[in-house]
Amino acid sequence: AQKVTQAQTEISVVEKEDVTLDCVYETRDTTYYLFWYKQPPSGELVFLIRRNSFDEQNEISGRYSWNFQKSTSSFNFTITASQVVDSAVYFCALSEALGAGGTSYGKLTFGQGTILTVHP
Amino acid sequence: NAGVTQTPKFRILKIGQSMTLQCTQDMNHNYMYWYRQDPGMGLKLIYYSVGAGITDKGEVPNGYNVSRSTTEDFPLRLELAAPSQTSVYFCASSYHGSYNEQFFGPGTRLTVL
Lengths: 120, 113
Hints:
A: 0% helix, B: mainly beta
């Protein structure tokens, strides 16, 4: 069965510090998709990135970067020069292409989330 | 383009009452999902649908029912509410399923007393 682990329950940093959020996943599928979502204090879920299992290239988007390593089953998220507005809960999620029944229909398995607090 | 909308935003139920959480999307997505988020936890899948008339159970379906009569709407029914169903409920939709990101509604905060 698929599983996503975010071992860091809470992280607290001071503004302008860099911070890395860890995500480790388990799956038997060879084709799968990894996601990061942000949940700000207002409660909605905001999509940040999708990465498929065949693409191990790291990605950078402004202050955000993602490091995908299949060898360690990890998909870590780094925020450079953190800002107060980055304070939120961040979720890593996994979707298998096939799953146990032959197709997963995009069902997401979420990690427990990491609460990031950025202090001014 | 409103995306995914959910009503109500908040609701308090008494034990044993029933209610329907409404979810509508205007993106013509075939795939729709219901998740619940308990405090300090990630989201867990309750039910999902791959098109009108087709639904299936997720990880935590007990105590819930769904229907999908149109592409746009995917209501979640709670029968005989229990305190264990106190949670925040999110509806989501996606175009393709595994490949595409899911778009989430704003959530419904439900308390069962």
